[in-house]
Design a protein that fits this description.
Layout: E1 3-5, E2 11-13, H1 20-34, H2 42-47, H3 55-83, H4 87-106, H5 110-125, H6 127-133, H7 143-170, H8 176-195, H9 209-215, H10 225-234, H11 236-242, H12 251-279, H13 282-312, H14 322-339, H15 347-371, H16 375-401, H17 406-432, H18 441-484
Antiparallel strand pairs: 1-2
Helix pairs in contact: 1-7, 1-8, 3-5, 3-17, 4-5, 4-6, 4-8, 7-14, 10-11, 13-15, 13-16, 13-17, 13-18, 14-16, 15-16, 15-18
């Protein structure tokens, strides 16, 4: 049983074992959707004989579409996801996965690849449903456990997919086309598992448990006419709602529509109120600034790293090890993220200085990648860059989440991601897009290294300011205590 109902007809997540079934299905979706051995070899596949595109077309005309699509879809999907209660959006993500890989296998030309990037932007935007769904079908006592399962299974799947792709390319010399066939089969299985997910009864904003208890009318078979008339007299709104299915004059549908519009306005007002409360905290505000700025840079680097690798070591002339590098970087990211839980540090004092220090590491790794002609230096620099970013984003995540409710965290996550994508869009239009400067890949990464250097300088200054202010406050407290001592 996935849900249980009480005497009033209200349904709630099952208390005992009901959380295991939806969690297993969601983990299956996460595993197979991320088990994509072709992912690390996307650029070599596009510029190879299968698609016969140029590096300039891939860099300046095709890849930017993903950024634009992701940004355009994020906010609408964020709101619609909650209103539709997650499952339809997860199914949409599965469909978008299949369309993406079908086009990757059989479509040709720049325009077709641009549409492919548009559908993959939908995939990225709908990812919010994957991480939100489980909270509506399990009790809060299982949140930590199911969150751990759902997040770790995607890292494991991506790592295994990267290793499988590297083995097939290096050992069996498999064409990239067959890696995409395997990916298509995997995402198709993910789509099938999404269909089997149970439909949640509640959501964070639009379909709360309290609203369901008020709006769900009692069954006419269980209520006697006398008591029904009495309850109708005391609450005419409930009386009208209970008669909606039998009305034929249209008043019922008008009432439902008015109620839904009022609920939407209430939700939007609550979101705006929560937005102001979230960012009124200086600590959350500055951590969110780093989150948005660094995520913008990370998305940009991850999106174009394969292009740089192919520039340094052309895939037509040598065996590429993109899959192995992605596997190692993902594993190191998991290790550094796990290590955060054991670091004993007062993040309120040292956190922003740590952001400055590690952002310097990110900047140095990007400069090393950009200035080196050795592919192994580029590989190592990427591993350091990704692991460092994942370390910091994990710290930022739990620092923010520790001070917020689940609903506000979801809102803040969506806003920070939107700002990051907005910044990335601006960066892409100016630096990458052929309608902008359309810079070559080496100059691009020089700009990305400088971008992280600017982030580093900003948070170095902020971190030193926080440290000095803390010491001044300690000195004042010490002076007061010494004066009060007889």
């Amino acid at each position: 049983m996935l849900t249980c109902c009480d005497d009033t007809g209200s349904c709630h997540p099952a208390e005992n074992n009901g959380w295991r079934h939806p969690t297993m299905l969601l983990c299956a979706f996460g595993f197979f959707s991320m088990m994509r051995p072709s992912e690390p070899f996307l650029t070599p596949y596009l510029i190879g004989p299968a698609k016969n595109l140029t590096t300039e077309q891939v860099t300046n005309e095709i890849f930017p579409v993903w950024t634009y699509s992701y940004l355009a879809m994020l906010i609408p999907v964020f709101l619609v996801t909650d209103y539709l209660r997650y499952k339809p959006i997860i199914v949409l993500q599965g469909v978008s996965f299949i369309i993406t890989w079908l086009m990757l296998l059989f479509a040709q030309g720049v325009l077709a690849m641009q549409f492919l990037e548009f559908t993959f932007g939908i995939v990225s935007a709908t990812e919010v449903a994957y991480y939100s769904y489980i909270y509506s079908v399990v009790n809060s006592e299982h949140y930590q456990k199911v969150t751990s399962y759902c997040r770790s299974v995607t890292l494991v799947a991506y790592t295994l997919g990267s290793i499988l792709g590297q083995i097939l390319v290096s050992v069996w010399n498999a064409p990239y086309f067959y890696l995409n066939v395997i990916a298509l089969v995997s995402v198709s299985i993910a789509f099938l598992s999404s269909i089997l997910l149970p439909m949640p009864k509640t959501s964070m904003f639009f379909h709360t448990k309290e609203a369901e208890k008020i709006q769900d009318p009692p069954s006419t078979e269980d209520v006697k006419p006398k008591s029904e008339n009495s309850s109708h007299q005391n609450n005419p709104d409930i009386a009208n709602c209970s008669q909606l299915p039998a009305m034929s004059d249209g008043n019922g549908s008008d009432l439902v529509q008015a109620t839904e519009q009022k609920n939407v306005l209430n939700v939007l007002f609550k979101l705006w109120s929560d937005f102001k409360r979230c960012y009124s905290s200086p600590q959350i505000f500055y951590w969110s600034i780093w989150w948005a700025l660094a995520s913008c840079g990370y998305y940009q680097v991850a999106n174009y790293m394969q292009v740089l690798w192919d520039h340094v070591e052309p895939s037509q002339n040598a065996t590429v090890y993109n899959g192995g590098v992605e596997a190692v970087s993902t594993f190191m990211s998991a290790v550094t993220s796990f290590a955060v839980g054991y670091i004993k540090l007062d993040w309120a004092i040292w956190g922003e200085l740590a952001l400055g220090v590690f952002s310097t590491v990110n900047s140095g790794a990007l400069f090393a990648i950009d200035l080196s002609n050795n592919i192994w230096v580029c590989y190592a620099g990427y591993v350091v860059f990704k692991a460092t970013y994942m370390l910091l984003i994990t710290i930022a995540t739990f620092q923010i989440a520790a001070n917020l409710s689940m609903e506000r965290y979801a809102l803040l996550f969506g806003v920070n991601t939107f700002v990051a994508l907005l910044l990335q869009t601006i960066l892409t239009i100016i630096v990458v897009d052929s309608r902008g400067l359309g810079l070559d890949i080496i100059t691009q990464f020089l700009i990305y290294g400088s971008y992280f250097a600017a982030i580093s300088g900003l948070f170095f200054i902020r971190g030193i300011y926080v440290l000095i202010r803390h010491r001044q406050q300690r000195r004042k407290v010490s002076q007061r205590s010494s004066k009060d001592t007889p």
